Amino acid sequence: MTSKPDAAQRMSDLRRLRRVRDRIDREYAQPLDVEALARDAHISAGHLSRQFRLAYGESVYSYLMTRRIERAMALLRIGELSVTEVCFAVGCSSLGTFSTRFTELVGMPPSAYKREAEEETAGMPACVAKQVTRPIRNREAPAASRKLS
Length: 149
What we know:
Elements lengths: L6 H21 L6 H8 L3 H12 L3 H19 L4 H7 L5 H12 L3 H11 L5 H7 L17
Helix pairs in contact: 2-3, 4-7
């Protein structure tokens, strides 16, 4: 029989999870995996995965990919890099996986997003463009193509 963790243990676990989340936010372009994140947090990969999902409502991998896609969207709006260059700049090692996840979150392939974003966000302050084009979290984009504005 296991006992429920006390308040001090729960706070310690939450601090650990915040450090993992903050590391993902900072180092999203680096090669990160659950095992390495868990090892650095001094917990098992399974425990990290379960606790992260309980605290943030999504898996570690999903959170990492969302960060990468958000950054990719910003780079594609600027329009100076190709889709392939953006893929590698945000830490993805597979263009196919990047394009698939991008399409799931944004509702259109990165190449289509780049074309539309350049037109629809022209003249818009970057902080506003970031907010209105933020990817959908914790659910997939609707099947129909999503408008940026």
